[in-house]
Amino acid sequence: MARIRLQDVAERAGVSIKTVSNVVNNKGAITPATRSKVEEALAALQYRPNVAARHLRRGNSGMIAVALPELTQPYFAELASELVRAAKARHLTVLLNQTDGQVETERAVADGIDMPLMDGLVMSPLTLGAEDLRRRLDATPLVLLGEHVDADSPVPHVAIDNRAAATAATRHLAEIGRRRIAAIGAKRAEGDATPAETAQLRLEGYRDALAEAGIPWRDDLVGTVTDFHRADGAEAMHTLLALPEPPDAVFCFNDLLALGALRALRDHGLTAPDDVAVIGIDDIEEGRFSTPSLSTVAPDKRAIAETAIDLLLGRRTDEGPPTAVIGHCLVVRESTGGAGGSTS
Q1: Which strands sit side by side in the sheet containing 157-160, from one edge to the other?
Q2: β partners of residue 295
Q3: What is the pLDDT of residue 122?
Q4: Pairing between strand 121-123 and 63-68?
């Protein structure tokens, strides 16, 4: 079947091609009667705009790429959904790419190798440094999610304040009266599934909150992990529970670690929060439906996505450093004695 043209619609509606174009693109001043005639003609002829040709005329592809480390991780899956939603609202199509946190894959994606023509790239890197970014072979606009690569990073970042988020989580545990507060998430050298800087910042936030509450630091209450997965949280929690003085609360550096810790507590015949209060970071949907429901610090994932896409499209013109810091909030649920949904 031949493609229906604007000229065909214009002839059926008895108007000019320019008028049809204005209706299709929602431009110009069109009377309700004229708009109605054109819309009836569009529907009758089943007109579909040639999006590819439109983008070619504008000199762009209408597509962006989003590269994330692990699409099976709930946080990244939920963030990807928000990025797709934000892009769609701006009439963009998203190509998703999983890097597995591998340095060669991240470099290839940043350099545009084996990638189609894109209007921009949003990427959450685990291995790239500022020098990698300065040596990029591709001029496609790039926005990074997560921590600073370093102070001299040549591209904008969108991140939460991980140190402040960790402080908020740990402070909450101190405020409900816990004194033997453990942390799960300090990184072992061989781990590569979560940026080491994120883990370090969350460890610093944990330390800040302990000092603020007058709670002595204990090396034995810091559980190390290789990755930020459920099994790592369970393994670290088993180790902590074997201590002569086990914790009465634990701050996990993400929700998956916290869910693993809850499983370990159950294996030991213990419960949260009666025996050990548990809190994480990320506010993934799984935590809202766990038993008990999981207290957490929630980053504003929608704002992260909106800001990243707007930075990519050059719609944000804020003065200052190329890093946008997005807010977070404490969500108190059953694992620390809440009713399942209060925020602060």
Answers
A1: 93-98, 63-68, 121-123, 142-145, 157-160, 323-326
A2: 279
A3: 95
A4: parallel
Structure tokens at 243: 């201590």
Using a 10 angstrom Cβ sphere, with 0-12 exposed, 13-18 middle and 19 or more buried, the burial of residue 270 is middle
CA dist 163 → 73, 159, 224, 295 (Å): 22, 11, 18, 18
Dihedrals phi, psi of 158, to nearest 5 degrees: -125, 125
By DSSP bridging, strand 328-332 and strand 295-299 are antiparallel
Could you give the maximum distance between any two Cα atoms of the chain, in Å?
87
Q: What is the DSSP string of 85-120?
A: HHHHHTT-EEEEEE-TT-HHHHHHHHTTTT----S-
Q: Which residues make beta-bridge pairs with 68?
A: 98
Residue 143: which of 198, 91, 89, 86 has the closest Cα? 86
pTM for the structure as a whole: 0.79
Tokens of 152: 């001299």
CB contact at 8 A, 32 and 76: no
- Distance, C-alpha 220 to centroid of its chain: 31
Q: What is the helix (H) or strand (E) element at residue 160, kind and residue range?
A: strand 157-160
Which among 299, 292, 229, 244 has a CA at the least distance from the CA of 265?
292
The helix/strand/coil state of 281 is: strand
CA distance 122 to 308: 7
Along the chain (344 residues), what's the average pLDDT of each consecutive run of 10 residues?
Answer: 77 89 79 90 80 49 90 95 95 92 89 83 88 82 80 81 97 98 85 69 97 97 95 98 97 98 98 98 97 97 95 67 86 89 49
User: Does residue 65 sit in helix, strand or coil?
Assistant: strand
Beta partners for 326? 160
Only one residue has tokens 């799984």, namely: 286
3-state secondary structure of 208: helix
Give the span between the Cα atoms of 50 and 214, in whole angstroms: 65
